[in-house]
Amino acid sequence: MLGQGTLQDPYIISTPDDYKEIFLQLDKHFKLGNDIDFTGYDLSSFNITRQFTGSINGNGYTVKNVNYQHLSNVGMVPHLYPNAVLKNISFQDINLSTATGATSRAVAIVGDVRSATLENVEFVNCSVDVGENTPIASIVRNLTGTFKVKNIRMINVTVKGGTGNTGFFSSVNTAVAGYSFSDGV
């Protein structure tokens, strides 16, 4: 993978295997170099409960074609912890669901956002579908702390199931300002 993982010289993500590094190098900076197609890719190591403090700049590209049924806390972006940034990225055709009988804690495309930034993030044709044993189903699991959310766009997005906090944001634990939604939420 090209780059040094710094803010000035981020790692360039070109393949699903490169993308997996986001879940392994949690304090590094990443930038997409092209669209990333996950058709047929195993996401079992994409644990959203890991605490990411770097940045992910989608550079206007798309992460797409995920159909994944799982038993654990799997998603496309780990928890974004203080000062982490997720920006300029589109998630398209991301479909996450729980396996029959799963007792997962949460299913979300993006983990918690804790004093972090979401900016210019788009979700198109995405779904989270969980059964009766999963308490949280959401697009973004949690918003908490002093976070920034700007230009979030959701088009043809569905969230189903869950026994507790279910919705586009499963919970918001602070005042929300400066956010916007559009098109087919």
What is the arithmetic mean of pLDDT?
A: 79
Tell me the fraction of residues in β-strands, as a range: over 45%
What is the number of beta strands? 14
If you compute it from the alpha carbons, what radius of gyration comes out, rounded to the nearest whole angstrom?
15 Å
Helix content: under 10%
Question: What is the topology?
Answer:
Elements: E1 11-13, H1 16-20, E2 29-32, E3 36-37, E4 51-52, E5 55-57, E6 62-70, E7 79-80, E8 85-98, E9 106-110, E10 113-114, E11 117-129, E12 136-144, E13 148-160, E14 166-172
Parallel strand pairs: 1-2, 2-5, 3-6, 4-7, 5-8, 6-8, 8-11, 9-12, 10-12, 11-13, 12-14
Word description of this protein:
- This protein is mostly beta strands.
- It has one domain (37-172).
- Helices cover 3% and strands 48% of the residues.
- It contains 1 helix and 14 strands; from the N terminus they run βαβββββββββββββ.
- Strands 1, 2, 3, 5, 6, 8, 11 and 13 form an 8-stranded parallel β-sheet that branches.
- Strand 1 (11-13), helix 1 and strand 2 form a beta-alpha-beta unit.
- The model is unreliable at 171-185 (pLDDT under 50).
